[in-house]
Amino acid sequence: MQNHVNTNGTPKYKKVILLGMDGLDPKIVSDLMQRGELTNFKALSESGSFTPLDTSNLAQSPVAWASIATGMNPGHHGVFDFLGRRIIDYMPELAVYRINRKNIFGKREAMFLPVMHGNTFWDYVSDNHIPSTILKWPMTFQPKQNNAKLFAGLGVPDIKGGLGRYSFYTTKDISASEEGTEKVVKVKFNGDTIKTVIGGPNVARIRAREEAKVALNITVLPDRSGAELNVDGKIISVKTGEWSEWVEVKFKLGMMNTTSGTIKFYLNGINPDLELYMTPVQINPKDPAFVITNPDEYIQELSREIGIFYTLGMPEDTKAFEEGKMDEEAFISMCDEVIEEQEKMLWYELDRFKDGLLASAFFSTDRIQHMFWATRDKLHPLYESKYAEKYGHVIDDYYRKMDSILGKVMERVDDETAVMVFSDHGFSTFRRIVHINSWLVENGYMKLTKKITADDKDGGGLFQYVDWKNTKAYALGFGGIYLNLKGRERSGIVEKGKNADSIAEGIIKGLSELKDPTDGQSVVKKVYSSKDIYSGPNVGNAPDLIVGFQDGYRVSWQTAIGGAPSELVEDNTKKWSGDHIIDPSLVPGILLTNFKIGRDKTSLMDIAPSVLDCFGMSVSDMEGQTFL
After folding, report:
1. Enclosing H/E stretch for 84
2. I want to staple 54 with a disulfide (CB 3.0 to 4.6 A). Which of 13, 365, 417, 603 is the partner?
C-alpha cells in the first residue's frame, strides 16, 4: 500500500455508509427541499450538514469518481476524461477501460488493466482489516485483488469488450444517413416469422476473425399483441410497448469453448413494421466472461440473491433513446429497473452490515438529466411546451427516488454510523455546441489539407484532414487541448519551453474572449493550464489546456473525436440537452452528512480522508482534507 498511513487515531464511528448519487445538483436539491418534496434530505440537512461540493476539472464522472476514491487530483490517479489520445498517432481512445494487449494467452483474469492509479479509501480501510463493500463504483474495472468486496461500475464492458452497442431489428427501410444505422439489423417476414441472428464476440478463425452468432426467430403472436422470441431454443414472449424478461445466451467460441451473455428486448411495434430493440449483450452475472467483481465469485453471489441484472458499466442506453430506437417510456422504465436492481444489492448488503464500510453508487439520475433537461429550459432549442408538460416531472421524480432510498437507509442508522450522501457534480443546460478544433483552424493553430464544407457534419473526424507538419495545437475529448509538441507527438512542431508557453498563452487569451456569433454571449468562462491545476506522477498524460465553458455551452461531439466542422458554434439539437462538462465552478455537487461539518468549503477530494478519519486512520500525503 501507499506509505504514510497512520492507523493510530481513535475511531469515531464503527460503521460508515456512503451513498453516491450521480449528478444531483445543489440548486435542484435546495428547491425541492424548500417545497417539502425531499423530506429525508431535509431531515438529514437539519440534523447534520448540507453543502455544495466542489467538483473535479474536468467536471465529469470518470474524473470526479476517481478523485473521490483517491482523495487526489487527476495528476495522481491518471483519469482526465472519457477519452484520451494515442500519442503515437493522435487518435482518440476510450479512457474508461484498458485492454491488456500483452495477455497473449487470453487469460480471463488478465484481460484488462487498471485505469485508476493509486490507492482508494477502501484499499486503506480493508487493508486495515475493516470489512468494506463497494457497489458499482466507476473506474474500478478490472477490480484489484485485495480485501475489499467490490462490484465495478462505469468502465465495465459488454461481452464483446466494448462500452455497449444495442441492436435494432426492423423491417423498415432505414436511411443510410440516419443516426445509428450501424446498429440496425434489417429483417424480413416470411409469413408471420422472421429468422435472424444475435451477434456476439469475435472469434478467431483460420483466415480472419468472425462474429459468433446465435439464432433468433421472431414470430407475431396470434392476437397481434406482441411477439414470441426464440433465442437459440429459449422461448419468451414480449408485448408491444413492454420489456422482455432477461434471456441468457451462449456463444460458441471454438472447440469446447463458450461464453455466456444476457439480453433484454423492448418491442416498439409490429404493425406495420417490426421494431425490436435489443440491449447490448451484457456479461452474465451467473457466468461472467470477464472479472468484474472482487472477489471474482461475488458477482455470482449477487445474482443468486437478486437474479440477473445489468452488468454494463453504463447500462442506461442514452444512444438508443437519442437515435429514436426506444421512446421516452422505454428509457424511463429502463432507468427505473437499473435503480431497482441497485437498490436490491444495497438492501442485501445493508441487511448484513454490522461494521465497517458500505458504499453504493447510483447513476440513472445523471442519465435522466442529460436526456430530459430541455423540459425545464424554455430557452433550449428543443424546448416544447407540450413535451415539457408531459415529461417535465421526470427529473424531479428521480430526485425523489433518491430521497426515498436515503429514507430507507436512515431507518437502519444508529449512533455508531456515519452517513455521507454526495454527488460528483451538478447540472446545467446544454444549448449550444462549440467546435474547438474549428476555432483552432480559424485562428491559425491548426492547419487542414482541405476546406471543410457544411455537408461534412463530422468536420473530418479522427483528424483526417489535419496537416500535422503545420499544426501547433489540437483538441480531443470533452474540453482538452494538446500542443503538438516536438519530441512528444509523432509529428510535433512546437518547441518545448518559451515557444510552447507563448502558444498556450495565445490560445488561453483567444478562447477566453470567444463570443457566440449569434448574440455576443461569452462562451468560455476560463481556460486552465494543466500545470496550474494538476500535480502528480501522471500529469504528463493530461491535456495541456482545459476549457471551462459558460452555462449553456459545451464542447461538441465532433471535437471530442478530432473533427473541425465549418461552423464555430451551433445549436444543440440532440435529446442530450443537459450537461455538466462546463467550468467546474458552475456545477458543484452536493454533500449531505449526519454529522456537522466544521467548515464552509468542501471538495470531493475531501471524502476519502474523511472516511479514513471516521475509522481513526489518515494518509499524510493525501491531497483532500477531512471535514470531520
Report:
1. strand 83-85
2. 603
Of 150, 166, 255, nearest to 204 by C-alpha is 255
**pLDDT tens readout for residues 71-88:** 999 999 999 999 999 999
Q: How many CB atoms lie within 10 A of CB 108?
A: 12
What residue ranges of the chain have pLDDT lower than 50? 1-2
DSSP state, residue 154:
T
For 194, phi then psi, to 5°, come to: -120, 135
**3-state DSSP call for residue 543?**
coil
Which pLDDT belongs to residue 206?
53
Query: CA angle, corner 373, sides to 372 and 376, nearest 5?
Result: 110
Taking the whole predicted model, whether its pTM rises above 0.90 is answered as: yes
Question: Cα 486 vs. chain centroid, distance in angstroms?
Answer: 33
Quickly count: other Cβ atoms within 10 Å of residue 603's Cβ: 21
Instruction: Quote the CA–CA distance of 425 and 405 in Å, as a whole number.
Output: 19
Q: Is the peptide bond before 272 cis (omega within 30 degrees of 0)?
A: yes
Q: Do residues 494 and 472 lie in contact, with contact meaning Cβ atoms separated by under 8 Å?
A: yes
3-state per-residue secondary structure call for 463-526: CCCECHHHCCEEEECCCEEEECEECCECCCCECCCHHHHHHHHHHHHHHHCCECCCCCCECEEE
What is the model's pLDDT at position 361? 98
DSSP of 97-132:
-EE-TT-TT--GGGSEE-SS-S--HHHHHHHTT--E
Maximum CA extent, the chain: 76
Residues 487 and 317: their CA atoms lie apart, in Å, by 41
Supply the pLDDT for residue 106.
82
Give the Cα separation of 620 and 604 in Å (integer). Answer: 17
How is residue 34 written as a grid cell? 424548500
384: Cβ–Cβ under 8 A, 6 or more apart, which residues?
none
Cell numbers placing 291: 472479472
Contact 19, 420 (CB under 8 A): yes
Burial 232-246 (b: 16+ CB within 10 A, else e): beeeeebebeebbeb
Element (H, E) at 318: helix 318-322
The Cα 162–Cα 289 span in angstroms is 13
Position 2 scores a pLDDT of 47
Please list, residue by residue across 610-621, b when 16 or more beta carbons sit within 10 angstroms of its beta carbon and e when fewer do: bbbbbbbbbbee
Between the alpha carbon of residue 108 and those of residues 9, 104, 111, 147, the distances in Å are: 40, 11, 5, 20
List the Cα angle 605/628/593 in 5-degree steps. Answer: 80
Return the closest-CA partner of residue 482 out of 523, 543, 562.
Answer: 543
DSSP bridge pairs for 93: 84
Cell of 465: 484532414
Non-local CB neighbours of 371 within 8 Å, separated by 6+ positions:
318, 321, 322, 331, 575, 576, 577, 578
Report the distance separating Cα 333 and Cα 530, nearest Å.
Answer: 41
Encode pLDDT of 195-226 as tens digits.
999 999 988 665 667 899 999 999 999 999 99
Query: Which grid coordinates belong to 595?
Result: 454529522
